[in-house]
Design goal:
There is one protein chain. By secondary structure, the chain is an alpha+beta fold. It is built from twelve helices and 33 strands. Helix 1 links the parallel strand 10 and strand 11. The structure holds flavin-adenine dinucleotide. The site of flavin-adenine dinucleotide has 37 residues, from helix 1, strand 11, helix 2, helix 3 and helix 8.
Length: 556
């Protein structure tokens, strides 16, 4: 990206320290995308007067799509910061100057006009003057995407968040687990190194858990502040507090502020669910939120619930060094994935030292000399910490005084994401259809489109993939082999990574690719991948299914 060439402003001549006339370098708001018209200055990383080197990152900006770091294109001193943190600036406008130390920018040089400050959000009144086209409750993947989408359609939008923007996914879900899993992958790589002829002089390593947590928190912070900046740059009004819907469909924040709107998008998401057994309140029994904040690596970790979250945690903490036991009520781990995939993953985890107890029911939790004992119908397990990972429940705090039609404890929605109450939409985990972040994004988009433009866009999820980010990765789209056989006459194609040259070369030969198609028309019904880069490859399968391309066409 060239920060200068697009500039409408001429270079400003300055007098150098040796009395020579020099040209100060303008730093401008770059055009970082076809549709970009302005960007927000998230943060200057240098102060006026600080030395800067060409190529050094000097500020962060936020476009309508992403956050990015801007490098200095010249060495010298940051002479002047023209536009401050938080300001929205049109593209190509000057935001600062780099020049020689001690120089001043000519006083008569016109400074770019500052835009009128945005109206601060009213904090104290009980009834806000403004009325909104759309009010979004919840700033997780479903909510923030819905808010931005509705604003991009030209709607006047408010969003209310009671905690930190980004919701479960960014704060205590997808992103924290993925940073831990990556650390685990690095450790796995170190362990593989010797077999490949890479010998460390000192082969021991240790895990500095507070540093692991700090790193995870820094990734989370970057993303969550990016979400807030994105909302602001899309002119969405932000309210911090707990929202509840009143009988007459107003949104009340913190029981005091009334926001009026035409449509409501209730995207309250989900929270960890509990089981009601004796001893469950033992302090050593943790939720996934608490486990991800733990600054001391437990020597042993038992996990109640071998679903996606439980197994990703087993993998991550196992690689970091905890001794893992998984207790699962069903006859296999992650029962929702293809049986064969589940078997390969279980075998791999066992090979890495995890103990997996399936068809095992937990009866009670007891204290055992400060440790936690899980009493099951299959014997007892003692561990330093226990992760309770038995699913998630919708967070219903936002429903307030409204009575919605429910379905198995979740808010029932139709294909337009509208609830039984007209004008109130409920995308994301709160409807329990498929509790995944990318599905929540899509539901948020559908809800926003329909809320602003009338119910036209339907939610279609048949080609939405799911991934378990373990080693090996497991990814799937469509039906499992068992489900497909129950409904269709099927043909199944299967290929093992053990026979794949690239996988062997990488030392990642565990797993397979399985394609299930209907015999009559060749329609692809499901694809299951266990192995390297499964999360990336599954998108091709997803696309093929979305385009309704048959297996025979793919073969050709
Ligand atoms: P949430 O993310 O839960 O967001 C809801 C937001 O609404 C929250 O910020 C909450 O504070 C706010 N809120 C609730 N009620 C109110 C109220 N009354 N007033 C104001 N604000 C309110 N999915 C994947 O696709 N891939 C993964 O790898 C993955 N990993 C995960 C790992 C873990 C450990 C967990 C727990 C989940 C994971 N998920 C993953 C699932 C994913 O996080 C969720 O599907 C996704 O966050 C759902 O988005 P949402 O917007 O519906 O709800």
């Amino acid at each position: 990206m060239d920060n200068y060439k697009n500039s409408k402003h001429p270079y400003i001549p300055l007098l150098g320290s040796k009395g020579l006339k020099i040209m100060a370098h303008e730093i401008i708001m770059p055009k970082a995308g076809i549709d970009m018209t302005e960007g927000q200055i998230v943060k200057w990383l240098k102060k006026e007067g600080d030395p800067v080197a060409a190529g050094e990152i000097i500020l962060e900006i936020m476009t309508d799509k992403t956050s990015m770091e801007i490098e200095a294109e010249a060495s010298g001193v940051l002479l002047k910061i023209v536009r401050q943190d938080g300001e929205n600036v049109p593209i190509t406008e000057v935001i600062g100057y780099i020049g020689e130390a001690g120089e001043e920018i000519k006083p008569d040089e016109p400074e770019p006009e500052k835009p009128a400050q945005e109206e601060p959000v009213e904090k104290s009144l009980t009834r806000l003057e403004d009325s909104y086209n759309v009010i979004v409750i919840g700033g997780g993947p479903a909510g923030y995407v819905a808010a931005i989408r509705a604003a991009q359609h030209g709607a006047k939008v408010a969003i209310v968040e009671k905690n930190v923007f980004g919701g479960t996914c960014l704060n205590v879900g997808c992103i924290p687990t993925k940073t831990y899993l990556k650390s685990g992958e690095i450790i796995e790589g170190l362990q593989m190194a010797a077999a490949r002829g890479i010998i460390f002089e000192n082969t021991s390593f240790k895990v500095d858990m507070p540093k692991v947590v700090e790193h995870k928190n820094s990734v989370v912070k970057k993303l969550t502040s990016g979400v807030e900046a994105l909302l602001r740059s899309n002119k969405v009004d932000i309210f911090k507090g707990t929202a509840k819907i009143s009988k007459n469909k107003d949104v009340i924040v913190d029981d005091s502020k009334v926001i009026k709107g035409d449509k409501i998008i209730l995207a309250g998401g989900s929270k960890v669910s509990q089981i009601n057994i004796p001893g469950i309140k033992h302090p050593g029994v943790l939720s996934s939120d608490a486990l991800l904040a733990l600054e001391e690596l437990p020597e042993s970790l038992a996990i109640i619930g071998g679903g996606v979250i439980g197994i990703e945690m087993a993998q991550a903490f196992g690689e970091l060094g905890s001794k893992i036991t998984v207790v699962e009520m069903m006859d296999r781990i992650i029962p929702g994935i293809d049986e064969e995939a589940s078997d390969v993953l279980a075998a791999y985890l066992k090979k890495k030292g995890a103990k997996i107890m399936t068809s095992t029911k937990v009866a009670e939790i007891k204290d055992k000399n400060g440790k936690v004992e899980i009493v099951t119908d299959n014997g007892s397990v003692v561990a330093d910490k226990v992760l309770l990972s038995v699913g998630r429940l919708p967070d219903m705090e936002g429903i307030g005084e409204i009575e919605f039609e429910m379905e198995r404890g979740k808010i029932k929605v139709d294909k337009y994401m509208e609830t039984s109450v007209k004008g109130i939409y409920a995308p994301g985990d709160i409807n329990g259809i498929k509790m995944l972040a990318h599905v929540a994004f899509r539901m948020g988009e559908v809800a926003a489109d329909n809320a602003v433009k009338g119910n036209n866009r339907e939610l279609k999820l048949h080609s939405a993939p799911s991934v378990v980010y373990t080693l090996p990765e497991v990814a799937m789209v469509g039906l499992t082999e068992k489900e497909a056989r129950e409904k269709y006459d099927v043909r199944v194609g299967r290929f093992n990574f053990a026979a794949n040259g690239r996988a062997l070369a990488s030392g990642e030969s565990t797993g397979f690719v399985k394609v299930i198609a209907d015999t009559k028309y060749g329609e692809i019904l499901g694809v299951h991948i266990v192995g390297p880069a499964a999360a990336e490859m599954i998108n091709q399968a997803s696309l093929l299914m979305e385009m309704e391309i048959t297996v025979d066409e793919v073969i050709k």
